[in-house]
């Protein structure tokens, strides 16, 4: 991939409209410093120096897309609470469409609070109600999706296993998208076993991929293209799930793309520094889908996704990147 090609894809992406469907949440970060251990218990005392909030989960996928394309819509569930109001405010401030957010008083907004000191996460506090979303929520969500889909170029299903996405919703979304010729990708959750037929590309991580096909993971090899169990797992996933391709994220080993009828493709990690992996998977699925919708090949989309993830793990918090940062990262790699 050269400079003109990445610039062409980014220019095309500006006019795209994408819909993200999935479990939204509010990410809170409490920043501070540690200088002593508590006299009450053997735990660090964090002196707070600042706090920040970001759209999290599927909302972070939408946030990663917004700087690259014309319109992003989010469909998810929030509670009738202050956290839900704050999440909506944050999304609207970034000009992300919130017409697909469904409010329900029985399901509080998911909030994840991370306490960070000296660039290290000390503890994470999760506030959520683990339950299936009520039927009326999914009915309202599907109605919103049907209204939005016609004007969209692609769909991302982001499953954090928090109760919104089930088999009926996946099947209905895929049927609607297929009838309109839309690209659909999905980030699955192994705790919520579903059949993803109708999705073009699945993006699990290594552990999720092995778990989804019921195989033990014997451990990673330095070269994924020589990792027989990993390659077998990818091929099984394609057949089992009836998808065109799987993009498996491999942490420090980059990403492996396996397509039907094609040789596997490995893109090594592009991260120069790793400060925080929060939200890196959100960036990966967002930029992979964006690239596909912009006309990139699967290989090109994998490279773009991998470079984007490499940029955001070098930042603290639930981070995003700009088109300039992405272009610079890609050009730097392919000109050396």
Brief account:
The chain is α/β, with parallel strands linked by helices. It has ten helices and 13 strands. It has a nine-stranded mixed β-sheet with strand order 5-4-1-8-9-10-11-12-13, with helices on both faces. It has a four-stranded mixed β-sheet with strand order 3-2-6-7.
SSE layout and pairing:
Layout: H1 3-13, E1 17-22, E2 24-37, E3 44-57, H2 58-66, E4 71-79, H3 82-93, E5 97-104, E6 110-117, E7 120-127, H4 135-149, E8 154-158, H5 167-179, E9 183-187, E10 201-202, H6 206-213, H7 228-241, E11 245-249, E12 255-259, E13 265-267, H8 280-293, H9 298-312, H10 323-334
Parallel strand pairs: 1-4, 1-8, 2-6, 4-5, 8-9, 9-10, 10-11
Antiparallel strand pairs: 2-3, 6-7, 11-12, 12-13
Helix pairs in contact: 1-10, 2-8, 4-5, 6-7, 8-9, 9-10
Structure description:
With 336 residues, the protein is an alpha/beta fold. 37% of the residues lie in helices and 27% in strands. It has helices spanning 3-13, 58-66, 82-93, 135-149, 167-179, 206-213, 228-241, 280-293, 298-312, 323-334; strands at residues 17-22, 24-37, 44-57, 71-79, 97-104, 110-117, 120-127, 154-158, 183-187, 201-202, 245-249, 255-259, 265-267. Strands 5-4-1-8-9-10-11-12-13 form a nine-stranded mixed sheet, with helices on both faces. Strands 3-2-6-7 form a four-stranded mixed sheet. The termini are close together. The model has no long low-confidence stretch (mean pLDDT 93).
């Amino acid at each position: 991939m050269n400079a003109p090609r990445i610039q062409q894809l980014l220019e095309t992406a500006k006019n795209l409209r994408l819909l993200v469907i999935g479990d939204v949440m509010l990410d809170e970060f409490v920043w501070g410093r540690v200088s002593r251990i508590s006299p009450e218990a053997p735990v660090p005392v964090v002196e707070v120096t600042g706090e920040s909030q970001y759209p999290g989960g599927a909302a972070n996928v939408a946030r990663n897309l917004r700087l690259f394309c014309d319109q992003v819509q989010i469909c998810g569930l929030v509670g009738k609470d202050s956290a839900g109001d704050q999440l909506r405010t944050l999304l609207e401030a970034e000009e992300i469409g919130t017409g697909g957010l469904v409010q329900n008083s029985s399901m509080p907004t998911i909030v994840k609070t991370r306490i960070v000191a000296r660039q290290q996460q000390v503890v994470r506090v999760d506030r959520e109600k683990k339950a299936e979303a009520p039927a009326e929520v999914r009915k309202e969500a599907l109605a919103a999706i049907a209204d939005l889909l016609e004007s969209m170029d692609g769909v991302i299903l982001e499953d954090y296993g928090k109760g919104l996405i089930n088999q009926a919703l996946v099947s209905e979304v895929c049927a609607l998208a297929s009838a309109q010729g839309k690209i659909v990708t999905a980030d699955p959750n192994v705790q919520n076993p579903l059949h993803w037929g109708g999705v073009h590309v699945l993006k699990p991580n290594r552990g999720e991929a092995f778990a989804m096909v019921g195989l033990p993971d014997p451990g990673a090899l330095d070269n994924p293209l020589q990792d027989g169990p990993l390659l077998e797992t990818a091929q099984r996933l394609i057949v089992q799930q009836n998808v065109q391709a799987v993009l498996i994220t491999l942490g420090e080993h980059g990403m492996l793309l396996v397509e039907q009828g094609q040789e596997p493709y490995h893109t090594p990690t592009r991260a120069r520094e790793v400060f925080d992996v929060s939200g890196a998977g959100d960036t990966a699925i967002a930029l992979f889908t964006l690239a596909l919708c912009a006309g990139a090949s699967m290989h090109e989309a994998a490279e773009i996704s991998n470079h984007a993830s490499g940029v955001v793990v070098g930042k603290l918090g639930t981070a995003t990147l700009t088109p300039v940062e992405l272009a610079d990262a890609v050009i730097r790699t392919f000109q050396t």
